[in-house]
Amino acid sequence: MNPPSERDEPAKKGKASEIPLLEWVISALGLLTVAAAVGVLLYEAIAGDKSPPEVQLTVQSIVQQPSGFLVKIRAENIGGEPAAGVEISAELVENGKVIEASGTQFDHLPPRSASEGGVFFRRDPRQVEIRLQARGYEEP
């Protein structure tokens, strides 16, 4: 086998080393995207909202089941810090008196996020007032 000679090399040696304009544009967009993501993360770490968790609870729906009723609830953390192990109490109130109580727990509520869950009752919650309250949380 003969060693390669200069004549065997492609004539377009200069063109092979040129990078097409489209590759430069895509590379620049990728760099801008990464820089923006890093900037947002740094901003949140340094100057982001440091307010404590604030949990807002709402009833999403009530579902009748063979063994009772399921009240689906939504827990939204509108605060700036996360909350773990968020304990929720739910009470059925009639004429100012608690007639049944239930509860649940949300494992993790990041800041400015929501999660859904439910509580079970034997009595029909559609006939009385439902009181929801966040009882406590842990710092993750």
Describe this structure in words.
The structure is a single chain. With 140 residues, the chain is of the alpha+beta class. The chain has two domains: 6-47; 55-138, Immunoglobulins (Immunoglobulin-like). It is built from two helices and six strands; from the N terminus they run H-H-E-E-E-E-E-E. The strands form two sheets. The chain has a three-stranded antiparallel sheet with strand order 1-2-5, with no helix packed on it. Strand 1 and strand 2 form a beta hairpin. The radius of gyration is 30 Å and the shape is elongated.
Helix-strand topology string: HHEEEEEE
How would you write the strand order of the largest sheet?
1-2-5
Q: What is the total number of structural domains?
A: 2
Span between termini: 69 Å
The helix content is 10-25%
The total count of strands amounts to 6
How many strands, what sense, and barrel or not for the largest sheet? 3 strands, antiparallel
Low-pLDDT sequence parts: none
The CATH architecture of the largest domain comes to: Sandwich
Structural class from helices and strands? alpha+beta
Strand percent estimate:
over 45%
Question: What would you report as the Rg, rounded to the nearest angstrom?
Answer: 30 Å
CATH-defined superfamily of the largest domain: Immunoglobulins
Average pLDDT taken over every residue: 90
CATH hierarchy, class of the largest domain: Mainly Beta
Label the overall shape: elongated
Number of distinct helices? 2
CATH fold type of the largest domain: Immunoglobulin-like
